[in-house]
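Researcher: I'm preparing a figure for a lab meeting and need a structural model of a single chain. I don't have an experimental structure, so a prediction will have to do for now. The sequence is pasted below. Please return the structure as tokens so I can convert it later.
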Amino acid sequence: MTELAVEFAGEWFRPDPDKVFEIGREGDLELDDNPYLHRRFLQITRSGGLWWLGNVGGRLAVTVCDAAGGVQSWLSPGNSLPIVFPSTSIVFTAGPTTYELLARLEPAPYAEIRTEEPDGGATTIGLIPFTTSQRQLVVALCEPMLRRDGTGVSEIPSSADAAARLGWTTTRFNRKLDNVCEKLDRIGVKGLRGRPGSGLATNRRARLVEYAVASRLVSAEDLPLLDVEEDAE
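Model: Understood. Here is the structure written out token by token.
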């Protein structure tokens, strides 16, 4: 039988295969007293020889990715998916706060997909090129998570704070945020657009941070980009 362990902020939990393991404001893994977070949000169960992660909340979605960033799923309310990789990153946002948990499975039925490290200066993800300033924007939004050691809780900077961090106007920041989200939406990244015809989603900053961190679009090695000066585009 496979054994599952879940880590949050340095603390490890081992779900019982014969019981439902609940995560939220209350439950077996109590995250914090965030009013934007569901009282019971995620459930881990074992069925059919597999461990399953279920989203039992009514509003929040979850980004689930193998630790190497090769496979990613967007788990919407009312859905579940199997935990099959040795290490699985679980990232979600409630209000201004982003949470990251890590699930470790031994033995795991599937191996993580190892992607090639990009050459220095490479800025292409899939077929979509990113300019230096667009990468700077992503790093500025992800900075609190990138500077954090391990899993836990991070606050997402406001557009105004991220713009100030880069020395930009808020107008320029929001324009580039729209461009980055549109590019990712075109390659199939979910959650960056609202309902059909409504344009970009209002919570696109949170979704962008979840995707960028879980998929390894940016890492702590990209933090020096915050100090790179570039002419306005």
